Amino acid sequence: MPIFLPELSQELSFPALSQALTEPDGLLAMGGDLSPARILAAYQKGVFPWFCQGDPILWWSPSVRALFEPGQLQFNRSLRKQQRRMGYQFSVNKAFRQVVAGCAAPRSKQSDTWIVPQMQQAYYQLHLQGHAHSIEVWQDEQLVGGLYGLCIGQLFCGESMFNRQPGTARLALIALQQQLHRYGAGWIDCQLPNDYLQQLGVQTMARPDYIQLLQQLATQPMDSTCWRDQMLQVSDD
Would you say residue 1 has pLDDT above 60? Predict the structure, then answer.
């Protein structure tokens, strides 16, 4: 069955979220560009870009969102033992482009990536403007895991994460939530639930409730100190 989608114009507006398709769930519009202004306008409305190489730019607002609530991400016994054995170090915004490249790299269960070169460049521009941030996990000065995303007020909208050693993506999430909690509420939006996130205990939230939370947190600015290039102290208590 053909799908008919609104095509975005040069204006930074989006269709009403009620117009998002139910199949595929959340597909809202196509076209436009990946300028920092448009991406920020999208996130502020609960919309994000997601497409593969060769596709038009597609914009989504799924009916159900995946989020980690403040304080939800904790060390379990095995992670605590791993951290003390391996001696990982954590940082923020020290290797943004390397983290994005790590997230975009081929994985064992998927040969292609939605983090296409134009997406990588778009989020790097957002990083330079102070909107996109990365968390890095290091061992012996080697990058072994991390994540990146955008901060909209006090809501961190995660884009992707990667492991080069088991558990390091989860450790990056814990480091992120601890850092967010130092300066604000600590909510992490993971966009869509998947098997891995569900193993970590991610919560789901219907779109109207998510938009209400987004509107609340978007008006609460985050102290810029949170995102300065720095090493992080991560507690495993």
Answer: no
Q: Could you read off the pLDDT of 14-40 as tens digits, one per residue?
A: 999 999 999 999 999 999 999 999 999
- What integer is the mean pLDDT of 104-111? 72
Alpha carbons 53 and 61: distance in angstroms, whole number: 20
Distance between CA atoms of residues 28 and 4, nearest Å: 10
pTM of the prediction?
0.95
Can you give the residue ranges of every domain in the chain?
7-62, 67-232
The domain 67-232: what is its CATH number?
Answer: 3.40.630.70
Any idea which fold 7-62 has? Alpha-Beta Plaits (3.30.70)
162: β partners: 146
pLDDT at 123 over 70: yes
